[in-house]
Amino acid sequence: MQRVLFHSTIFGPIHSRRLGTSLGVNLSPDDGKVCSFDCLYCEAGFNAQGPGTTGLPPADAVIQRLEDKLRAMKAAGDPLDVITFSGNGEPTMHPDFETVIDGVLELRDRYYPEVKVSVLTNATRLDRPAVVHALQRVDNNILKLDSAVDATVQALDRPVGAYSVSNVIEQMKQFSGTGIIQTMFTRGTHNGIHVDNTTEEEISALIDAYKVIRPASIMIYGVDRTTPEPSMERVDSQWLRNIAQRITAATGIPVTTA
Q: Is 10-257 CATH 3.20.20.70?
């Protein structure tokens, strides 16, 4: 079974194909996965591997570990473009997510004021005011929307618990003009069921959703690493560029590809 990628709370810096030189913050356990999605393409593996034994890192420990790392990097003259909340699960599931964001923003301003703070979120907790307030204050609030078709989300992203595309789109409107929508395009088969969010129906539904949300920008990308469902395919880069042009023409929203 494919296992978690990150075995520490602070990891990197690593090169992100979308964000540059990125220092990662993992608010999930360092030996297990805690997520409200169970995506077929997740590089951290399936939720079935379990939550591990270490638990979610306390907010004060996250902040202290990040300060230690930033201090050392600053002393060494190391470059940094972004501090990114990612890791072995959904960062907004941490009960003290807003407190952590407060601490990270303060440390960023002290050590690397030019650096952006990014959060990669699957947008399943936008009904919580503290999460929304925290996301409104980061530089790059990157919200996942892989499909605007409920059946496809259920097959590809496999939400844990109730999930409604229409509800999530409505909640994403809180970030109109500021949020970044991130969409992973892929196709494959899981448990005998074909999964594909690259069809004409899917693209049209996503364009309609982007028009409603009106994000500041859109990121579209394809599989780039090993996936727990091995059949998931990477889409052609020229196809991505063509779709990006189509989305921008239809919505007026800038689109980047990776």
A: yes
